[in-house]
Amino acid sequence: MAAQKPCPICGKPPTAASRPFCSERCRDVDLNRWLSGSYAIPASDTEADDDEELLPPSAPGARRSS
Ligand SMILES: [Zn+2]
What we know:
mainly alpha, binds zinc ion, single chain
């Protein structure tokens, strides 16, 4: 067989049960990296919410001047 890639977490040879990791523990470490990294990706939804929240406070002031 072709050379298997080592465990991306610790570099040990991967096991069939936890490929491509050497153990479930290393698979967990990689999963946590993905989860913590994904928090920074979906930003478009949050930006839209922030824009809307800036509008209401200006309404009372604009009404007073007219
Ligand atoms: Zn490992």
